[in-house]
Amino acid sequence: MSKxxxxxxxVLIGLPPGLCSLSFAPETGRMxxxxxxxxxxxxxxxxxxxxxxxxxxxxxLGLLIRTWLRKSPS
Length: 74
Prior knowledge:
Layout: H1 3-23, H2 25-33, H3 37-69
């Protein structure tokens, strides 16, 4: 995979879920701490979705790093 392709994939697929999972983390924590079963349900749901988004971000970042560190054939 070329470096440009890895960068484009990271920006289009990896970056948005990573940013969303980080931006909604405080709200998820607030929902989990608040009283009420519906808040706990939605807090858990957003927490799981945030973890999935962070996993996608981490996988794509690892792919990007491996591609950029690989020696290009000369």
